[in-house]
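Dock N-carbamoyl-L-aspartate; give full complex structure.
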Amino acid sequence: MSQQQDLLRDAMRRLNLTRDAFSERLGVRRRALDTWLLPDDSGESRAMPEMVGKFVAEILQREALGAAVAGGAADDRTIGQRIAAEGKPHLLSVAQFDRGSLEDLFQVADIMQPIARRQKVTRILEGAVLGSLFFEASTRTRVSFGAAFCRLGGTVCDTTGFTFSSMAKGESIYDTSRVMSGYVDALVVRHPDQGSVAEFARATNIPVINAGDGPGEHPSQAILDLYTIQREFSRMGKLVDGTHVAIVGDLKYGRTVHSLIRLLALYRNLKFTLIAPPSLEMPAYLLELVARHGHVIEQTQSLQEGLRGADVVYATRIQKERFAGEEIEGYTPEFQVRKALVDAVCKPDTILMHPLPRDGRPGANDLSVDLNHDPRLAIFRQTDNGIPVRMALFAVLMGVEKQVARSMRDAGWRSPAHIGPDDADFDGLD
Ligand code: NCD
């Protein structure tokens, strides 16, 4: 059944159709489509008639043929080949993606969902070892990359911080990377210097994934953010094209938003409102890049102005550790995304996101905990999506994505229907 939901979701994504438009195209009632898209464990979920499945496949086939005719020969390269960095299977920047390869990757992530939800298991990467090198603080990125590799059947060896690595003895990036390549089959690296992960990648032929290079990029985070937006929108019958995204906080040093705005720029007719104190604005090269794609960008220091009518609110932490002695001015409590403000200026279907961690210390002015029981808060759905997305990245970089579906077996243990005690509060949205 979850295959049916994946098929329908993917079809809507590819055809760029809302639920209303898709049900019309299929000639079925919107309510019927909704029941086919519900999770299996929901009492209302229904199996879609076989005929409809055939029809969806036919529409997709026709669409693909049309695209091939319009764009010349069909691209029969694998996703890994299409996103390669200088011919190698690395993920260093979101610039490696176009909309097609991104949506193909999302389809692989959909296939991974039953594994991420502990219903299925696979051993497709049995015997493979991941090297996880984190030279900066991390909880979710490090653990979710590790868990994603393990759930594909691989194992993980890791080192954290400079203190316990040979870099503390002056070893170069080149030497470290080449040495590690003899031990492991893929590397995930986080490092405080922009461009450093690309340097690791140049010293090896095994896949290297950038898990954050200083204030540079954090591509896997942006991919899981966009995947989350797509899934939330698909449930609400909205499209990414034409949407209004408000981004608030440290837009100068926040690498997650640097990657996210570049990925979103691949879509059409977006409106961005960027809300930051004067010293922490989005770098000019990114503003130019987004504007070149024809999107509207408004910059403001008023949270109230910037959030008004947004479909997505993406809040970020102030990256104090990256400040080169500068003082931030104007980062007042007015910058805190709170429930009263969200209720006043956002919509009932606005989604609230954050890459996390949110800074909960007094005066931090980060995303407020008074939104914790608000179903619009998507932060834990976002973190949960980190697993299928990172599994998909490993699968495409290591060339096993086509074998995953066949390799799945039922999980031998039972896990709770809701993994978080408050998850049931959000059921109305799923
Ligand atoms: C972010 C990071 O490290 O870039 N977190 C993450 O990976 N999810 C954001 C941050 O540190 O504020």
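Observed: The two ends are 16 Å apart (CA to CA).
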